[in-house]
Amino acid sequence: MAAQLIDGKQIAKNKQEEIAKEVQELKSRNIIPGLAVILVGNNPASRTYVKSKEKACLQLGMHSVLIEFPATICEDELLAKIVELNEDHSIHGILVQLPLPNHINEKKVIETIIPEKDVDGFHPINIGRMMTGQDSFLPCTPYGVMVMLEEMNISISGKHVVVVGRSNIVGKPSGQLFLNENATVTYCHSKTTDLKAITKQADILIAAVGKVDLITADHIKEGAVVIDVGMNRNKEGKLCGDVSFDEVKEKAGYITPVPGGVGPMTITMLMYNTLKSAKNVKPTIQNSI
Ligand code: NDP
Question: I need a surface site. Which of 46, 59, 79, 232 has the fewest CB within 10 A?
Fold first, then answer.
């Protein structure tokens, strides 16, 4: 029997409607959630992502600021801009689009954003809070995956979750969020021997690698939940994930498509985090009138 499709686009739309309502409510208290996005250089993929973040902000009634720098910008100038945004009361979230040019220290840039405005959830303080189960900004892609499963009423507690990929922004935090929800988590990566033997044990399989057709029907067990985070281009230039969708959908219980799966959720959770940051603002005489 074919898998049930997890429609990320529709789930994201529903969530965005809820966010838009809350934005209106905040606006009635003179707080407009504001997101600043910094784009360095001219990477076409980065530009596309940044534009869609800007569009989502405006659609939800949020304040959006795009700051562009040439690839030649020096690190100090970039850090100074972040410090300025840290102090700007109209900005509740700061995002620096990655990757950055090689001469800029990514770690330093992330750590300059104050944790209270780190809506990407990449700051070590937010990561530490997430790991210890405290309130924090959760990284948007893993967070989006969790929300999708929640919306589909897919239970997590006691399940064996296999995460393929261990990057700091997707793989590692995904496994941690599942662990926080009482799953048993296994990580796989490029040095894993016999990937299939492990992925076949997964009740829930997260593919976050960046390789077309890495996960085939042979990699999964009958009825598994398959979440495809990958965003790749196939030989024909078509957007696709890490999972061989057509064959895996015949064996899985649930599956996310690419496009229309995890991608729309990522942007939605960024908006959610920006709203959350704005809601944390303590009323001042000026914005409580
Ligand atoms: P990275 O390149 O940072 O990490 C890839 C991971 O995959 C690494 O941990 C690597 O292992 C592992 N890996 C590589 N080859 C294999 C293999 N043959 N078998 C098992 N593991 C392997 O990528 P990201 O985590 O940033 O992104 C992963 C994918 O998700 C990409 O396609 C990206 O475009 C997409 N993405 C999608 C988003 C969305 O919103 N849908 C958001 C962010 C990313 P090792 O650590 O050993 O090198």
Answer: 59
